């Protein structure tokens, strides 16, 4: 589904973020990417989101070369990917409902669909009672669950979670991981980056280890090897 | 789909205008100041124009005819003068009327009146009083009259343009200079205040740059992201225009009552009331343009990858 072929990324200041990375992620996989800060995890994810271009090599999403996409096709492409970040990235002056509705509006869904799907997806992340709250009225765990709800509401092909538990306590971390597993069980590909050993062990699936821009390990059975 | 998107963009714009109270307030205040400057320039321009018109209307050129000149010839010349595009008016004063005017002017001067009576006949000729559309046109009119005079010597007694020439020339160049300076000052003020307004709106959108990046990540198209910001910008402009229009009402009333008849009868307040549709259109238009275009340009920056 996602294929990195000999991808190298060198930034303008000659720092190498990725070096010769080749990687293949199948549909419906749950892949965890681990590594220290600066190992290249975030750059890898930005490549999939077309936020960064590789200096050399190609990244394919199914048969599409992501970086040859036209600018006008980009929004449509991004709607196939749900994203969750460490810092939640909710829109501060929109309510929980509006934050999720915005993603559906962007995808061109009707008002009726929005009215029925938003409460449904909030029930899924156990936040039904907070539907009219603003982000600043929520705890970190709640914000991350809203972000997850927003990421899955358009039924994307893939969910990318970049350190989603980085700002959360163990209980919330556990809950978020359980929701991600549930999403994966329902058939959505999940890519998760993390430093958290406990998270990797809870997930127990494929783990890719990165170090200084290189892919150093690829284990099928979930080991945290740093 | 287009209608649904338009509806959603409008709604999002209104909601963000209302929820970002302080940010909206600061933008509205800055645009209001800009529009106030614009209104001020508009009124000063009208004031300057009316004062200049007033001064210009006091300038004229008189053609004095010899007393024996034939009235029909004088009227024929008047017609030819009125046909000239640079002539605003050409009033005929008959020799009898000239004498009457002279007597009235010297009503308290017994000696002059006595001398006039002793003369027995009317020593004054007919006069044509010419006003040009613009002071710079008098020279051309005088040249036309010189031509007439050469064609028929002994018909025109004298033309007072040459006595007034220096005064007319000075006035012409003063009016011209005054216009240019006023225009330059107005332009400078408009540019400065527009730059400040533009920067304020840019700051408000800078605050929202994270929001814009999130919108892009969830796959919103550039148009859909930009729309609500432009709508909010246009609303800043409209609200500011209404505040300015409301403030101008007491402001012009006060200025008019303080200056009174100083500006030869021109009342800013009356101008405001009389030209209200034009002022309304100009301020609302300028506000919408300023708010809308500033927002559009400011968001564009964060939509580039």
What does this structure look like?
The complex is a heterodimer of chains A (226) and B (305). Chain A has 226 residues and is α/β, with parallel strands linked by helices. Chain A is built from 7 helices and 10 strands. In chain A, the strands form 2 sheets. Chain A has a 6-stranded mixed sheet with strand order 6-7-8-3-9-10, with helices on both faces. The longest helix of chain A has 16 residues. Chain A is globular, with a radius of gyration of 17 Å. Chain A starts with a strand and ends in a 7-residue tail after the last strand. The mean pLDDT of chain A is 90. Chain B has 305 residues and is α+β, with helices and mostly antiparallel strands. Chain B has 2 domains: 186 residues, no CATH class; 88 residues, Alpha-Beta Plaits. Chain B is built from 11 helices and 4 strands; from the N terminus they run ααβαβααβαβααααα. A 4-stranded antiparallel sheet of chain B has the order 2-3-1-4. Chain B is elongated. The two termini of chain B are 26 Å apart. The mean pLDDT of chain B is 84. At the A-B interface, α2 and α3 of A face α1 and α8 of B.
């Amino acid at each position: 589904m996602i294929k990195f072929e000999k991808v190298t990324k060198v930034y303008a200041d000659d720092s190498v973020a990725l070096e010769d990375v080749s990687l293949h992620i199948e549909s419906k996989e749950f892949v965890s990417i681990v590594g220290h800060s600066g190992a290249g995890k975030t750059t890898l994810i930005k490549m999939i989101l077309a936020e960064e271009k590789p200096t050399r090599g190609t990244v394919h999403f199914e048969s599409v070369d992501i970086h040859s996409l036209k600018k006008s096709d980009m929004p449509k492409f991004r709607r196939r990917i749900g994203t969750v970040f460490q810092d939640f990235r909710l829109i501060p002056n929109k309510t929980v409902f509006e934050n999720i509705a915005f993603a559906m509006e962007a995808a061109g869904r009707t008002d009726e669909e929005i009215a029925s799907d938003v409460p449904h997806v909030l029930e899924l992340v156990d936040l039904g009672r907070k539907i009219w709250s603003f982000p600043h009225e929520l705890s970190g765990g709640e914000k991350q669950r809203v972000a997850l709800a927003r990421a899955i509401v358009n039924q994307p092909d893939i969910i990318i979670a970049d350190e989603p538990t980085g700002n959360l306590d163990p209980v919330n971390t556990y809950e978020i991981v359980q929701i991600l597993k549930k999403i994966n069980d329902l058939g959505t590909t999940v890519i998760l980056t993390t430093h958290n050993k406990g998270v990797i062990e809870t997930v127990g699936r494929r783990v890719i280890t990165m170090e200084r821009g290189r892919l150093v390990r690829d284990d099928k059975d979930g080991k945290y090897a740093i | 789909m287009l209608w649904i998107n338009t509806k959603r963009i409008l709604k999002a714009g209104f909601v963000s205008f209302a929820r970002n109270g302080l940010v909206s307030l600061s933008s509205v205040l800055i645009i209001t100041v800009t529009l106030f400057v614009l209104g001020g320039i508009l009124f000063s321009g009208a004031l300057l124009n009316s004062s200049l018109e007033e001064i210009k209307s006091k300038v004229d050129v008189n053609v004095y005819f010899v007393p024996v000149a034939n009235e029909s010839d004088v009227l024929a010349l008047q017609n030819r003068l009125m046909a000239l595009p640079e002539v605003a008016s050409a009033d005929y004063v008959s020799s009898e009327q000239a004498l009457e005017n002279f007597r009235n002017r010297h009503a308290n001067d017994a000696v002059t009146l006595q001398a006039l009576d002793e003369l027995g006949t009317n020593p004054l000729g007919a006069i044509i009083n010419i006003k040009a559309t613009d002071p710079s046109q008098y020279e051309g009119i005088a040249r036309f009259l010189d031509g007439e005079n050469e064609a028929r010597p002994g018909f025109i007694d004298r033309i007072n343009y040459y006595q007034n020439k220096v005064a007319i020339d000075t006035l012409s160049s003063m009016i011209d200079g005054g216009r240019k300076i006023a225009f330059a000052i107005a332009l400078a003020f408009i540019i400065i205040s527009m730059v400040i307004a533009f920067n304020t709106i840019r700051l408000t959108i800078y605050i929202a740059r994270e929001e814009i990046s999130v919108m892009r990540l969830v796959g919103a198209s550039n148009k859909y992201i930009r729309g609500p910001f432009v709508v909010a910008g246009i609303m800043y402009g409209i609200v500011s225009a209404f505040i300015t229009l409301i403030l101008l009402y007491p402001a012009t009333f006060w200025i008019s009552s303080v200056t009174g008849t100083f500006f030869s009868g021109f009342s800013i307040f009356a101008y405001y009331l009389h030209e209200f549709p034009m002022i309304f259109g100009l301020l609302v238009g300028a506000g919408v343009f300023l708010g809308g275009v500033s927002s559009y340009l400011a968001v564009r920056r964060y939509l580039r990858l």
